[in-house]
């Protein structure tokens, strides 16, 4: 089997590795990929969506796996183009990927399908937004479009709300677009991933993302400084509610609204005092949750994704390890405001009993890995207990060093 994975980060490195470990030993390709990924998957000679499709056709690709979301909504859409050209694709078509690309679309879908979510009002101007907030703080403001994770502000007071609204409506920092004014929910968050194939689904191991930069869950929001994954993260009762009140109605809604879906769907959920509610959908796996979850997947992921892309959910092909997995992110100096490239990384080869996925690295001329992005490496270890996985992951992460390294020491430990 010949598989092409689309993306270039730590999530794609983890996906590529899990696919590479599939029993059928598929031949792997990655676009645009990274030097670390190219040690497992061959690079692709393409410079955009159209040429990527041409390349897949002339290279007899059996399956395209969408790692990151951007290509799903670019131009005609990656999955749409794959379908038109007869290439099975694990990832949804453009119309369905609006669940991630437009927060307003997602909110309307949730409301139409009576799926629990925060109340929200869409606004076109600063004045409308202020009127919708109606003096109720804290409030949550969301730019209605892809904004590289910077489009959401949880505002404790009027000053912070006005400052975000000024960025969106006056400075147009994210381009043109509306703002959702949303009720602020409280409670622990959990990331739930389902593999969806038409009217069927399979829920993967739940995970929790450590979103803020510093220990104690303080400091600015980041793309994610680590993750913990386990079936035991959420009680069976809560998981059953998530399935009945959120996952099943979402799958039913997609069918009813003629939104085809074959791929991973990410449910960002808040466990509020009145029950689980949807914070957001993403049409892909999470990063860094993927790095934590993939080592717990056993069986044949490659055949599972191929069968799914062709319309068959083969639950028999994979199973999930019952233990725990912890992923510690090592970030470069300045992250998340900026990032620093070119700091030489030492100690990767010293890591034992853990996996190291590359999020943002490159090889220097002398063959040494160096930083190349905000999030640099993901160090992942597993264990039968949470404590064992935490100890293993942090001990492994201790082996690695580079100038300006930033990392959270409480990943897997802090429970919230
Ligand atoms: P999003 O980009 O939609 O995942 O939002 C980023 C983060 O903002 C979430 O992970 C939550 O921590 C927070 N957030 C989003 N929506 C709400 C809400 N309605 N109430 C409270 N916090 C929220
Ligand atoms: N970890 C959050 C995300 O992938 O969006």
What does this protein structure show overall?
By secondary structure, the chain is of the alpha+beta class. It has four domains: about 1-95, Rossmann fold (3-Layer(aba) Sandwich); about 120-185, 2-Layer Sandwich (Dna Ligase, domain 1), CATH 3.30.1490.20; about 190-320, D-amino Acid Aminotransferase, Chain A, domain 1 (2-Layer Sandwich); about 325-395, Glycinamide Ribonucleotide Synthetase, Chain A, domain 4 (Alpha-Beta Complex). Helix content is about 30%, strand content about 30%. It contains twelve helices and 24 strands. The protein has helices at about 10-20, 50-60, 70-75, 80-85, 95-100, 105-110, 125-135, 160-170, 235-255, 290-295, 300-310, 385-400, and strands at about 1-5, 25-30, 40-45, 65, 90, 120-125, 140-145, 150-155, 180-185, 190-195, 200-205, 205-210, 210-215, 220, 225-230, 260-270, 275-280, 295-300, 320, 325-330, 355-360, 360-365, 370, 375-385. A five-stranded parallel beta sheet has the order 3-2-1-4-5. α5 (about 95-100) packs across α6. The mean pLDDT is about 95. The structure holds adenosine monophosphate and glycine.
Task: Give a quick summary of the entry.
With 416 residues, the chain is α+β, with helices and mostly antiparallel strands.
Fold topology:
Blueprint: E1 2-7, H1 10-20, E2 27-32, E3 42-43, H2 49-58, E4 63-66, H3 70-73, H4 78-84, E5 89-90, H5 94-101, H6 103-112, E6 120-123, H7 126-133, E7 139-143, E8 152-155, H8 158-170, E9 179-183, E10 189-197, E11 200-203, E12 207-209, E13 212-214, E14 218-221, E15 226-229, H9 236-256, E16 262-272, E17 275-282, H10 289-293, E18 297-299, H11 301-309, E19 318-320, E20 324-331, E21 355-358, E22 361-363, E23 369-371, E24 375-383, H12 386-398
Parallel strand pairs: 1-2, 1-4, 2-3, 4-5
Antiparallel strand pairs: 6-9, 7-8, 7-9, 10-11, 10-16, 12-15, 13-14, 15-20, 16-17, 18-19, 20-24, 21-24, 22-23
Helix pairs in contact: 5-6
Bound molecules: adenosine monophosphate and glycine.
Adenosine monophosphate binds at residues 118, 140, 152, 154, 182-185, 189, 211, 268, 279-280.
């Amino acid at each position: 089997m010949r598989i092409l994975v689309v993306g270039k980060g730590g999530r794609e490195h983890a996906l590529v590795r899990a696919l590479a470990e599939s029993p059928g030993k598929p031949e792997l390709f990655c676009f645009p990929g990274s030097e670390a990924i190219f040690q497992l998957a061959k690079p692709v000679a393409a410079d955009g969506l159209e040429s990527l499709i041409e390349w897949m056709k002339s290279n007899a690709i059996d399956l395209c796996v969408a790692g990151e979301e951007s290509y799903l909504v670019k131009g005609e859409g990656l999955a749409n183009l794959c379908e038109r050209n007869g290439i099975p694709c694990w990832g949804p078509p453009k119309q369905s990927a609006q669940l991630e690309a437009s927060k307003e679309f997602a909110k309307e879908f949730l409301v139409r399908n009576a799926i629990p979510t925060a109340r929200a009002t869409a606004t076109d101007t600063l004045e409308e937004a202020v009127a919708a907030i109606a003096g109720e703080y804290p409030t949550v403001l969301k730019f209605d479009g892809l904004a590289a994770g910077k489009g959401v502000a949880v505002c404790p007071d009027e000053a912070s709300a006005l400052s975000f609204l000024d960025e969106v409506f006056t400075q147009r920092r994210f381009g043109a677009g509306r703002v959702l004014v949303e009720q602020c929910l409280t409670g622990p968050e959990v990331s739930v991933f389902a593999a969806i194939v038409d009217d069927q689904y399979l829920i993967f191991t739940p995970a929790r993302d450590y979103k803020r930069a510093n220990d104690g869950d303080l400091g600015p929001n980041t793309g994610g400084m680590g993750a913990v994954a386990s079936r035991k993260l959420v009680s069976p009762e809560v998981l059953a509610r998530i399935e009945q009140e959120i996952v099943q109605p979402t799958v039913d809604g997609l069918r009813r609204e003629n939104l085809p879906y074959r791929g991973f769907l990410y449910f960002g959920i808040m466990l509020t005092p009145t029950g689980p509610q949807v914070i957001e959908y993403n049409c892909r796996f999470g990063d860094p949750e993927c790095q934590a979850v993939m080592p717990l997947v056993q069986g044949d992921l490659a055949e599972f994704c191929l069968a799914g892309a062709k319309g068959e959910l083969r639950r028999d092909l994979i199973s999930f390890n019952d233990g725990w997995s912890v992923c510690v992110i090592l970030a470069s100096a300045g992250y998340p405001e900026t990032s620093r490239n070119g700091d030489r990384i030492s100690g990767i080869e010293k890591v034992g009993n853990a996996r190291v996925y590359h999020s943002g690295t490159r090889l220097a001329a002398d063959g040494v890995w160096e930083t190349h992005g905000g999030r640099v490496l993901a160090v992942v270890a597993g264990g039968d207990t949470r404590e064992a996985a935490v100890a293993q992951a942090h001990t492994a992460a201790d082996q690695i060093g580079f100038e300006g390294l930033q990392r959270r020491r409480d990943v897997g430990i802090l429970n919230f």
